[in-house]
Design a protein that fits this description.
9 strands, five-stranded antiparallel sheet, 20 helices, Hypothetical protein af1432
Length: 480
């Protein structure tokens, strides 16, 4: 067998067995002629030596240490590695049978894929197996979005590594919390960025020999050979920490995990896999609500840094809102809804371009149309946390008008929920009497006059009168 290109090379090993017929090691019997030229290793120095000795002494330029760790007779393995010592990326194919030979092919894939196409017909296993090095074959076992392994490859490796030699073997199942929230609020491109970020964090945290795969839309599996449960838990902690340290521009990342470990050879690996999945779903139920709420509050904090809606604005709204709730005999549920609406009404502005939010002059028609989308964006964000913040419909409606000329323009008059009608007045009033870079601050008297002038058009006439009477009779109710 001769080498097929100037950077491709191969090694041939023969198995060594003890007197009882049990496999002990491999001894190097042949190399391609170009081994020394490519790797700097003189074949005469290693021919006839055991792979365990070569791996211990060589500088890891051709990855023999990793191969020696995982060599199992009668297996086939293929993977991609960047070999730092050679400054090249190789596709490594390992073939072995149960008694005799192990052959390792190194194919340089650093250059254009056409070089691989030229070599695929020439690289044949001694038993007639042909290795397909085409682009399609390389991509088949890698997820196109994250660069992680595919579900198919994960299960192939699970089967291959399910041996006594690899025990203890741990499986970690992970699920990205709030992907639907991200997709609905910011579009699938942002969801894709979140998945890519998870992929980067996982690849940065786990070892090269671990099998990291994306097995579903928001699900990940990691196979850790020779790893106990305690070590797996420590790795998961590091992943969580990196998720905290590496948020996207406007989104923090949160993943629920489940861990299970096979310790004894007679344990069923499929049951271990199911246990990891069950634990992950249990943790997701426990952590999911808080993860969504944490994400929403993270968005609100980010919003406060890029807009003029600060904490004082929310607190003033709550004070005025609770006074109005008492006057109008709100139920406890209505009071809580109004408080939440005061807190989260503008959460959708996180999806509006920053340059529009911070503009100090009048918005153009196009910019205003973009700004108006914030109520719909907020609705999509909050509806994914309806079980803890049940005001998604109110957020969608909080810019509706009594005369039906508001946006999104779905409701008018008493069709608008009472909580929303109250909120629209106190929100408008607070915006008028507090400083904004894009408009002149009004006096309390002028603002109340403006509210009265829009009674019956923008605002509910009955609630308008109740509010203006309240503010006139309690001049200190406004909290700065």
């Amino acid at each position: 067998m001769e080498h097929l290109s100037k950077n491709d090379f191969f090694l041939v090993f023969k198995g060594i067995f003890n007197t009882e017929g049990n496999f002990e090691d491999y001894v190097l019997t042949k190399t391609s002629d170009n081994l020394q030229k490519v790797s700097g290793i003189n074949p005469n120095d290693i021919l006839g030596e055991k792979i365990s000795k070569i791996a211990a002494e060589e500088t890891n330029s051709i990855n023999l240490r990793e191969i020696q760790k995982h060599m199992v007779p009668n297996t086939q393995r293929k993977y991609e590695r960047y070999l730092k010592g050679l400054d090249k990326t190789y596709f490594i194919n390992i073939f072995s049978d149960d008694r005799d030979y192990m052959i390792i092919f190194y194919t340089d894939i650093t250059k254009h894929i056409k070089e691989l196409e030229k070599t695929k017909s020439k690289l044949e296993h001694t038993k007639g197996e042909i290795v397909d090095f085409s682009k399609k074959a390389l991509a088949r076992y890698k997820d196109s979005l994250t660069g992680l392994y595919t579900r198919e490859f994960f299960y192939e490796e699970l089967k291959r590594l399910n041996t006594k030699r690899q025990l203890p073997i741990s499986i970690i199942m992970g699920d990205l919390n709030g992907l639907k929230l991200i997709n609905d609020a910011f579009g699938h491109s942002m969801g894709d960025k979140a998945l890519k970020r998870i992929g980067e964090i996982l690849q940065d945290t786990f070892r090269d020999e671990d099998i990291i795969a994306r097995v579903g839309g928001d699900e990940f599996m990691i196979l850790l050979p020779k790893t106990n449960k305690k070590t797996s838990e420590e790795i998961v902690k590091r992943v969580r920490q990196k998720c905290e340290e590496k948020p996207l521009d406007i989104i923090n990342i949160n993943v629920s995990f489940g861990i299970s470990t096979k310790i004894k050879p007679d344990e069923n690996i499929n049951e271990i896999l199911e246990e990891a999945e069950d634990k992950m779903y249990f943790n997701k139920l426990k952590e999911g609500k808080q993860a969504k709420l944490k994400m929403i509050n993270y968005l609100k904090e980010k919003l406060q840094k890029i807009t003029f809606e600060n904490k004082g604005h929310y607190e003033r709204l709550k004070v005025m809102g609770m006074e109005m709730a008492e006057i109008l005999n709100f139920t406890e549920v209505e009071e809580e809804e109004l408080k939440l609406l005061c807190e989260y009404h503008d959460i959708g502005k996180i999806g509006v371009p920053k340059k529009i939010l911070q503009k100090k002059t009048k918005l153009t028609k196009k910019e205003w149309e973009s700004m108006k989308k914030h109520s719909e964006i907020g609705y999509n964000i909050i509806k994914e946390s309806r079980e803890i913040i049940s005001i998604d419909e109110f957020i969608l409606q909080h810019h509706e008008r009594w005369d039906g000329k508001g946006y999104p323009g779905l409701l008018k008059g008493e069709e608008i929920p009472l909580v929303v009608r109250v909120f629209s007045i106190i929100d408008a009033y607070d915006a008028m009497v507090n400083e904004r870079p894009y408009k002149e601050q009004m006096t309390r008297e002028k603002a109340l006059e403006e509210i009265k002038n829009k009674s019956g058009s923008q605002f509910d006439p009955h609630i308008t009168k109740k509010f203006t009477d309240l503010m006139k009779n309690h001049p200190k109710i406004q909290v700065m």
